[in-house]
Amino acid sequence: MNMNENPAALIPELALVAGAVLGLLLGSWLPRHRQWWVRVLATIACAVGLAATAVAMRAVPETVFGGSFAVDTATNAVRFIVLAATLLVLCLSIDTVDSHHRETEFYVLVQLGALGTIMLVGALDLLLLVAAYLLASLPLYALAGFAKNARGTEASLKYYLMGALFGVFMLTGVTVLYGAGGATDYATLARTLPGASHAAVAIGVLAVLAGLLFKIGGVPAHFWVPDVTEGATTPVAAFVTTVPKIGALAAAYRLVAEALPAVSLDWPLLIAILATPSMTLGNLAAFFQDNVRRLLAYSTISQVGYVLMAVAVATRSDLALPALLFYLAAYAVTNLGAFAVVAELPHALRITDYRGLARRHPGLAAVLIVCLLGLVGTPPTAVFLGKLEVFAASIDGDLTWLAVIAVVNTVASLFYYLRWIASTFLAAPDREQNALVPAGRFAALGAYTAGIASLALGVAGGLVLPLISGSLLP
Amino acid sequence: MLSLIVFLPLAAAVALVAVPTSAGRRVFVWSWIAITAADFALVVAAWIGYDAGTGLAYEQNLRWIPSAGVGYHIGLDGLSLPLVAMTALLFLACAVYSLPNTQRIKSFVLLFLFLQTVSLGLFTALDLILFFVYFDLSIVGMYFVIAGWGHGNARQSALKFFLYTFIGSLALLLGFIGLYLAAEPHTFDIVELARANPLAGSGSYGALVLLAIGVGLAVKTPTVPFHTWLPPAHTDAPAAGSAILAGVLLKMGTYGFVRIAMPLLPDTWRHYAVVIVIIGVVSVLYSALVALAQEDFKRMVAYTSVSHMGYIVLAVGAAGILAGSDAQARSLAVTGAVTQMVSHGLLTAALFLLAGIFYDRRRTYDMGAYSGLAGPAPVFAGTTALVAFASFGLPGFSGFIAEFQIFTGSLASATVATALALLGILITAGLFLRVLHRVFLGELQVPDAPGAASGFTDLRPSEATAILPLLGLAIVIGVLPRFLLEVIEPASTTLIGLVSR
For this protein, what is any one GO molecular function term (chain A) (predicted)? Predict the structure, then answer.
């Protein structure tokens, strides 16, 4: 077995660990108004990680540490997306957590959550996958209750209970697959599972996928999404609905592509069947939502439905991997952009509160329109290109019916995104206290960055796609 | 050169964003007129420099997203050049028309400049995804025009418009992906796809792709039964918005037939040509009859639009039926279809701008409320009468040239259908004459509008400057059509060659 133990291959992960640990130490010594040092440290950690990833993208893909962690196209792309998304979340959280009495904890937890997410993607072993799952979950439970108010606590508790339940499922699945396949690493499982008991493999795969589906926030493991998005603070909601999904979706892709290709179980159909209700229920539930954060929560549920399409054709189409990775990047910036606008206007909770936005803050309204139309998939935004790739991959992989369902859903989703957009153009109500009071400069900066990135990624997709068009390690 | 024509309005819009709203409406309106005039001048220059018969001119093919098979490929030929010219002229006319009174002028100007780039871009695109990008952005732009500056149930109509055409566009996208996957190597390039003919003899797969593309284009065109979004959208849109919607945006659908559906799916097109002919005839007759029953002037014009687009659908369908006709007849039908796109663009835009005058003066389009307007507004009455005559195809106007070619070209291959469609002209003529009679002749009667002066003022200079050139050009095409037909004919022959493969 390849015993490559080169720690230099894990610089992005080590940077996050160092940022978190040093930040925690530093934060316990600093007075409250100087805790921004921890934020600087976290930013440096992300920047170092991004730089190391950019270098690693040019290097030859390799597996490290006993073949348990892959450093390949998917890992590098997800590292890049997660670190960039984390930077954006740090930026839009500043207005909320600056000089907060648990400021350090916030940054540390965010970094640990990002670390767990990246580990999910690289994992080539079910046990490492479970460890990464826990690392990507536990910090987020704490973050969900960060505000320490009634709603946040309830959200945190719900999130934790669901997470624990699905974590148990996942462990059960790992146990069953271990029993059936005699190993936990994907390479061995790919060889042994085709000969194993059919029922055991089906149960094991389903249980492991259930755990990932919880991280993804897909139906039927989606119940926590709206409650956490509404109950937690906006930066936390932005982080929780964006970052872990990226890792878990890519991890699901790796799991089915590397451990199950020869299994006679019809897992593409299984995933297609999971994708369908995700997009449909997410859309239907978002239809008459008046609370913008709940609306965005349901929108994220429907968005992961589209990404799952790429997972479903993982072994059937060469277009699947670039489609998955590009969609994830596009989704991350676009979703964060919408959340950044919400974070910038903390008093505007309902769609009707956005009346008059186009007149009072035309820049923010423009970002909101770009991001919401982006989530619909209107060209030339990034998600459009992502959708194009995903649709092409699923038709190429003989799942045309799934592409048609996705198209119908796209049209349905227009309704609620347009409802929000339309209200920004209405005349503002003549009330004394207006809800459109901006929170600060940093959330606005985050919003503009994400909005521009969402457009730029769509127009300059030609530069990005070659970077993510490699293949997974065998 | 071509990219300059396409992106000049957008670049100007970006520059205008920096100008504060307080600069005053004159700054915005006059720079708008200057930009559209400059763009039109560039198009005229391109026309003069265009050598008919050479195929694609001003071609530009850059790499955009090579790994997805998407390129920035643009060019002009005889099918697109007339439409580009018409588009540039209509936007200029809208700029002049909107000179005196438009609210929130800055955003209006920016939106129209954006729409102009999108429309010009669509007619020059030689890549399916580029085409789709413009196609979708035109929907977004028009949504904001209707929702922001419309009247009546503007927001509802805008939403309906958006939902219908967006559904269509997504069907179109699925069809494009179908073409993309069929070609080896995968590509979205229209020229390469036309050369490769990837779906030749592919049976039901080709039928599905044509169905998806056909539905997408039919919604935008619109043909019966996908036309229901159009009357409310037109009725509630501002006059300039209606003019662009009818003059330019509807052509995106029919242009798609000649640019994409026919050359890229020739086998399938020929196989289902009869269906397309039938849809065309039903569109012609049904909408003409519904138009006859309208009391609302703008709604009536909207329905006649559907009817006129039906002629185009009939022609492109007939061009796919090889039996009973020769290549020359089919080519004539296609030439007629493209001429009809230009002619309809000019005349319907003029009609909608004229309709805007009813609303501007008296806040209603109800034809029962007006009569005898020829007395106080003779120029308005005369112009409307001429545009109406032109619109139902009287000789001497562009509509006649177009419809004559369509009927001559289609008669041999689709005899019954063409004979039936001829009735459409009769109905249209009847309904326009009835309108002229009711509204302009007889005792003077105008409805009361809050805050409006009594009487009915004639065309203002800005309105006349916007509308009369459109009518003038329709007459020029009607009397001296050679300059237009010489550009279109070689392209039609090439297209027929591709379809008959």
Answer: NADH dehydrogenase (ubiquinone) activity
